[in-house]
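User: structure tokens for this one?
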Amino acid sequence: MVRITEQLVRKRAEHNELLISTLEELSLHQEDIERIEHLGNWCRELKILLLQSNLIPRLENLHRLKRLEYLNVAINNIERIENLESLESLRKLDLTLNFIGELTSVDSLRDNHNLRELFLTGNPCTDYPGYREYVVTVLPQLEHLDGKEVTRGERLRAAKVFRGLRSRIVQLEAQHRIERDEQRVRVARQLDAQESSVVDCDDDEQRKVTEFWEQKSEHCPETRIQMAKFSRRAAEKERQNEELKQTEQQKRRPRKLFADCGRPYSLNEPRLEFDFRDEADRLELELHLYRFLDTSLVNVDAQPRYVRVTVKGKIFQMALQHEIQPDRASCQRSMTTGHLLIVMPKLNPEQVMPVGRKLAPKTGTTGDKLAGAVDIRTICGSADSRDESIPDLI
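Assistant:
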């Protein structure tokens, strides 16, 4: 059974800095919640509460939400409208695709004077003859029913047939309750038969799941609970298989950042695009980080022979051909594109002659052409000052 916990509520309150006492909107959809609880004590300022696609069988513990304006409990297991009289500010109520067969339970909404929209589409009560006429008469404050506007003429016509309509609806509700009781017994036997039919295949989980989904079932709260149980089991199995697969991959191919001799490797685990520029006095690395990635998830480490950037636990490392000065390296991130620029000054910058500088012409030259004889003895200095790596002229 999935419960509403404080941790779950705070997790869904990220937009409110994890504060739940002042929370005005809360979404707890698709959590397989089976009971409404604690919200009236923790979140009294709620104006919007979304609980669709859960397994809630009953409306309860909402009487303290005096400011609640919109309640969505669509696609649950609710069979009766109740315990909503204290919601003074309620304007919109969505009960789509539940199992409400007791149409007269809408009478409990008479005191919700601010109620303007009501959705009952997909419930058994909507199949009763005169369903719409009954609802618009019992709830004169409604402006829209099932997404369709309630006009004054429609309300007047419904009031004329209401007296005989109510007795007919009460009979249909009694018949529905009898059918529902029979359905409970029938579905319980069917579920027991399903469990016994898959006992022999406990070793094969996939076969067990396949047989369950292939069997015919009735549309009722019990079947919906069973389907949610098998869905959770399948999701948990898939998650375990994924974790096992990742663990096996890590064991099979351990990550190596350096060779046995100490030489750094270059690798790109996050598969980021990048630009690398080798300037005369510096190296520049521009990583194309994701635009909305939080900077706190990025860690940069510059060393003399490599630079490493860790992005959400994945490593981007580049081996450098030139030794750099790590203490003078800097990194900046663009607020527009999110790209990260790392500038690494070289330890031994290259000497580059400025463009446009011309040597003064020597004696014996005319314009750009050489003239006269060349004395090869003056090309290099004396033997004492000459570099030993320069060979003698032949």
